């Protein structure tokens, strides 16, 4: 079945342009809420570890586990909800996110907290599998690139507002309060999705048997998956432990970390829209640039980031580069030419979140068994391999 363009669908529903873009904004707000919840432990690892009596590496499981679950859940949920209106799917997932945040806030032990993070992983996998390619169903074809950048801006805004705010709140009132507060935006976004999104009957949805076929038949999807695994694993091996990196490598006080994450996220927003526009013109060149700059910034941190000024400068470059990752990689998948777009999105979501989990796990093992700077060398090397992959194999595809 052929998916209608956003323009045709909008006209058929008699929706105004303003309402259409409000719907895009609601999906972006959902992206913001999901990513903030996913990344919230990054700024709270120290306090979570202290409260629950575990090491920082073990506390990193709160980042790793949702990624594993999301990677497994993306194709399964896309298939299981194949006959359900996509608006209803998104709304149900936001309701589940509110429950997960409430359980996290009340968790008496690491085991219960990890159970709540499993629920978060289900939300991440399902939400991204649907939302990642939703722009084409909401806006005219000429506006798809812009709408995609807006939807993915929720990732960068989560870094700017969500994670730093959670870090500040966790320092002031405890990490449990930070999770409890995240229930509120989940409920607000739920209401916005109900009110602003049109009915979106499932068309061209992913079936589990479609996913292997997309990988086997489409070389662009395979290159995109390899790129995602290398780049995102490298980033999260280092970024999951950015707080210890800033404190131990950069000599920055704990009280300044929240503010620096705000700076990082602001750079990420700029990187998101810059890369989104560039990817619309030449996605391969954009991905080579983003991967190379990310690798350079992370590899330079243990060499040039040993002072607060150097660490902050490199953190800004890091934020600019990573801000462009999600929108650029998703653009690559959208242009893969596959006849099963949600199957390709499921591959993207599974690879992305599996890489988050692998990066967090790898970084945790390095932090606990080697040293904090080791995550920077590892992360930078993987990002450099990602740049080489798209440089060499991207041209062939």
UniProtKB/TrEMBL annotation:
Pfam families: MFS_1 (PF07690). Signal peptide: none annotated. This is MFS transporter. It is found in: Cell membrane. The chain crosses the membrane at residues 21-45, 57-77, 89-108, 114-136, 143-165, 177-200, 221-242, 254-275, 287-305, 311-334, 346-364, 370-393. PROSITE patterns: MFS (PS50850). It is a multi-pass membrane protein. Keywords: Cell membrane, Membrane, Transmembrane, Transmembrane helix. CDD domains: MFS_NepI_like (cd17324). Residues 22-397 form the Major facilitator superfamily (MFS) profile domain. It comes from Actinomadura miaoliensis. It comes from the Bacteria. The keyword Cell membrane applies. Its main location: membrane.
């Amino acid at each position: 079945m052929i998916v209608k363009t956003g323009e045709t669908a909008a006209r058929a529903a008699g929706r105004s342009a303003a309402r259409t873009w409000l719907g895009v904004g609601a999906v972006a707000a959902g992206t913001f809420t999901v990513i903030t919840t996913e990344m919230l432990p990054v700024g709270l690892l120290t306090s979570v570890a202290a409260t629950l009596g575990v090491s920082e590496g073990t506390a990193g499981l709160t980042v790793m586990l949702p990624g594993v679950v999301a990677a497994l859940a993306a194709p399964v949920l896309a298939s299981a909800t194949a006959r359900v209106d996509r608006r209803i799917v998104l709304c149900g997932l936001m309701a589940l996110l509110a429950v997960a945040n409430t359980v996290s806030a009340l968790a008496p032990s690491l085991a219960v907290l990890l159970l709540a993070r499993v629920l978060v992983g289900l939300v991440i996998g399902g939400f991204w599998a649907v939302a990642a390619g939703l722009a084409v169903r909401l806006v005219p074809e000429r506006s798809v690139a812009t709408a995609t950048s807006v939807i993915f801006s929720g990732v960068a805004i989560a870094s700017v507002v969500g994670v730093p705010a959670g870090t500040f709140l966790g320092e002031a009132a405890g990490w449990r309060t930070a999770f409890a507060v995240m229930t509120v935006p989940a409920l607000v976004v739920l209401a916005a999705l109900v009110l602003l999104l049109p009915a979106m009957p499932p068309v061209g949805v992913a079936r589990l048997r479609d996913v292997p076929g997309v990988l086997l038949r489409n070389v662009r999807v395979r290159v995109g998956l390899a790129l995602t695994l290398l780049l995102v694993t490298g980033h999260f091996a280092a970024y999951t432990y950015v707080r210890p990196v800033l404190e131990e490598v950069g000599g920055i006080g704990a009280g300044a970390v929240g503010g620096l994450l705000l700076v990082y996220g602001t750079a990420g927003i700029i990187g998101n829209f810059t890369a989104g526009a560039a990817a619309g013109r030449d996605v391969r060149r954009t991905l080579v640039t983003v991967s190379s700059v990310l690798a350079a910034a992370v590899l330079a941190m243990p060499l040039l980031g040993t002072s607060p000024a150097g660490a902050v400068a490199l953190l800004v470059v890091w934020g600019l580069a990573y801000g462009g990752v999600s929108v650029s990689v998703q653009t690559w998948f959208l242009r893969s030419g596959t006849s099963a777009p949600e199957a390709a999105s499921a591959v993207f979501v599974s690879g992305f979140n599996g890489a988050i989990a692998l990066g967090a796990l790898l970084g945790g093992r390095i932090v606990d068994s080697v040293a904090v700077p080791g995550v920077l060398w590892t992360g930078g090397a993987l990002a450099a391999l990602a740049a080489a992959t798209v440089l060499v194999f991207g041209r062939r595809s």
